[in-house]
Amino acid sequence: MSAPMTTSRAPRPDPSRRAQSVAIVTAAFGQNLVYATVTTFLLFYLVEYAKFSTTGIAVVTGVLTVARIVDAIADPVVGSLIDRTRTRWGKLRPFILFSAAPVAIFSVLLFAVPDADEPAQLWYFSVCYLIWGLVYAACDVPLWGLIGSAFPEKKSRARVIGNVRAFGAISLGLATLGMPYLARLLSFGPETTAGGWTLAVIVVAGFGMGVFLLAFFVPREKAITTDPLTFRQLFAALFANKPLLSVLAGSVLGAGRYVVQAGGAVFVVVVYDDEAVFTIVGAGIILGMITASLTTPLLMRRFAGRTLILFTCFAGAAVYVALYFVGFENLLVLTTFIFVTGLLLGVFLVSQTTMIADAVDRAEDLTGIRNDGISFATLTFVTKVMSALSVLLFGIFVVIAGYEGGGIGTPEEQNIVWLAITLVPAASCLLSAIPFWRYRLESERYPSVTE
């Protein structure tokens, strides 16, 4: 390994842990507010206000799929670039600084499709969305890495991660409930317009990415005293980190946990013929996630992350199986069960992120290599894979059911979709327990990757 680097930089005052925590949580809230707005309302905007045809929406769906693949691949690339970066600000914070404005700009452009013929609109959308995915990766990966770097103490780190997850769920709720009203207000008339949506996104993107910059100005990341590794060495260190790989494998196998979110809106139409019901069901999930995100750090003072995540695997499987037999006739009972699944998902997400940070710390202790960028890029990568797989799993069951839209489904269609909402997540929870069971920090041996 190369000799340690030296620096003549004068030391700067270190902000308090509380100030750094507040800055990161607030920054993540702003970032999540923008992300939730784009992912929740983009397709709605294209259909209702950009007036894309059925063929155009089919093209858009293809673009979204391709962009998601490109975006997922971009995450580890961004992570490796972060780990090779050396500046007076550190390696993570420069990416936060220079990604904020592009994310805000391209978020607005997605909701400002020009009045032109549809082929031109499709080209405009495709280019903007692909770029948006890439610049968003450049802001998302370093933020997670900064949490691990700025908070080496496990208790404070778990608390920050829990707060980030909790306020992320709050931002999702605010965007889902508030954006339609904001767009109506900024349309300055009796009806919501495309211009109203553009102005609403300008407000949200400007605010969200503005407060996101707090993650650059306040926190301090751990000093790096070694020369940057090559891409080959970074990826070798990644694949040598067996605890980290266990978390990633368990997460992918647990993709069924997201099926309720992926297919909930379709499910309530098939069963209740009322899209508004999803607001109730969605509120149950969000409230459960917020509650768990705030309380999991307290649980982690007594229980290891591995213990908590295995509990969510087995308890989640039991809850989903019980829900299958209880049925969907009683909406109050259904929402109660969904709240419990939200609780377990919140515990899972906080424990998952904490276990990745612990695996990075352990690898640094044994090898001297701290690869926050590429390691936390795997978190964002696997989250996108889980989301994509949950959509695929639910879509397969909708196809098997033969449901073609048009309101409430037949009893057979309802039962097949209900199976996708319950037993598929149950099986996924059990499968994900296998890699998590193998998660060990103390017993792992890391081969040299710097020779």
Automatic annotation (TrEMBL):
A Pfam family: MFS_2
GO molecular function list: symporter activity
GO BP term (any one): sodium ion transport
Transmembrane segments: 21-46, 52-74, 95-114, 160-182, 194-218, 234-256, 276-300, 307-326, 332-360, 381-403, 415-437
Keyword Transport: no
Annotated GO CC locations: plasma membrane
Protein name: Glucuronide transporter
Native organism: Pseudolysinimonas yzui
